[in-house]
Each structure stands twice: as structure tokens, then as C-alpha cells.
């Protein structure tokens, strides 16, 4: 199977591709459809976890596993390879721990309005890029869950937007992330609410 990556998607290495569970998948479209079913099941699971502490490494890994576990053998496991984006693989666990501690502190001390706190968390989770693939989809769902816990209205990116289809959102999202990388969170906040 040859993968055709959309702009902003992280390419997989050969070992990661070898972790594809369903052997009947031969096209990118089949993979996208298969993953979407798995992601929806993960979403249902996540929103049923009313008492789970979402700002914990275990929850982050379990959510990735629930979202991609029927697709990839390495789902829920931190990446072992470096990518063109994200922190070096050996820093993933440490940087994620720092992010979780910082976000809990910011939440507990009302350092930012809830929307901004959630979007800053989302941006940093994407920046760390803990998994081989699925980081954008995973971090948007994490933001949806955290936002719900903080009483935020649902973000529009989580309302069934298919980011695999060519559309303006597919272009705006990476641009908003790059602006946040430069310290300007406003475009990402606007995208999440557009």
C-alpha cells in the first residue's frame, strides 16, 4: 500500500506502516474510512468517561488507543522515531508530563479563559506530537473533552468536520498552528470557533 499524504499529515516510516492491522486495506480512501469508524468509537468512549482525569498521561494514551487501536498495532504507544514536526522522540514523555502539569496549574489558577486554556493545551499537544500518527485528530478530541469539562461550548472542529477532504479548513488549520508556534494563539482560537 502506498500512502498519499495530505498537506500537514505526518508521513509514517516502514515499521509504522507495517503496524497496519486490517490487511484488506489497499488505498488511502479505505484507510481514511476505516480510521474514521475507529475514531468515532473512540469519541463515544471518551465522552462516557465522566469521572476520568483527562489531564493524565494514561488517559491520553488510552484515548489514542481507543481512536486507532483497530487500525494500528502501535496505537496508544509513544512514537519511537523523530518526525519533521514534534519534539525529539526521547523527549515525548517528559514534555507531555510538563504540559499536563502546566495545564492543571493553569486550570486550577484560572490563568486563561477556558477557551484559551483548552486551545493552548491543544496547540502544545500537537507540538509535542506524541504518537506516530493521528496527533491532530487526537489533540482536537482531547481539546473537545477538556473543553466540555471546563464548560466550554463545543468547538466546531469536532462537529464532524472531515479534514481529509480538500477544503479551506485543511489549509487554515496548519496555518493557525504555525501562528501559535510563533506565539500568536488568536488564529487557532478563531479556527476552533469558526
UniProtKB/TrEMBL annotation:
Signal peptide start and end residues: none
Family annotation (Pfam families): Fic
PROSITE patterns: FIDO
Domain Fido: 55-194
Coiled-coil regions, chain positions: none
Domain of life according to the entry: Bacteria
InterPro entries: Fido (IPR003812), Fido-like_dom_sf (IPR036597), Fido_containing (IPR040198), Mobile_mystery_prot_B (IPR013436)
Protein name: Fic-DOC domain mobile mystery protein B
Provenance organism: Variovorax ginsengisoli
Amino acid at each position: 500500500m502506498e500512502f498519499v499524504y495530505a498537506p500537514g499529515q505526518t508521513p509514517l516510516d516502514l515499521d509504522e506502516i507495517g503496524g497496519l492491522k486490517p490487511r484488506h486495506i489497499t488505498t488511502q480512501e479505505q484507510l481514511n474510512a476505516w480510521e474514521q469508524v475507529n475514531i468515532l468509537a473512540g469519541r463515544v468512549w471518551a465522552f462516557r468517561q465522566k469521572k476520568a482525569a483527562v489531564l493524565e498521561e494514561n488517559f491520553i494514551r488510552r484515548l489514542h488507543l481507543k481512536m486507532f487501536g483497530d487500525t494500528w498495532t502501535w496505537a496508544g504507544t509513544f512514537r519511537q522515531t523523530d518526525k519533521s514536526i514534534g519534539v525529539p522522540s526521547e523527549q515525548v514523555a517528559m514534555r507531555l508530563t510538563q504540559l499536563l502539569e502546566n495545564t492543571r496549574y493553569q486550570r486550577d489558577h484560572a490563568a486563561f479563559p477556558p477557551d484559551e486554556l483548552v486551545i493552548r493545551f491543544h496547540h502544545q499537544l500537537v507540538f509535542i506530537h506524541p504518537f506516530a500518527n493521528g496527533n491532530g485528530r487526537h489533540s482536537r478530541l482531547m481539546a473537545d473533552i477538556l473543553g466540555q469539562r471546563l464548560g466550554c461550548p463545543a468547538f466546531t472542529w469536532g462537529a464532524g468536520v472531515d479534514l481529509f477532504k480538500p477544503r479551506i479548513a485543511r489549509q487554515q488549520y496548519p496555518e493557525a498552528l504555525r501562528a501559535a508556534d510563533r506565539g500568536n494563539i488568536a488564529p487557532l482560537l478563531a479556527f476552533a470557533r469558526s
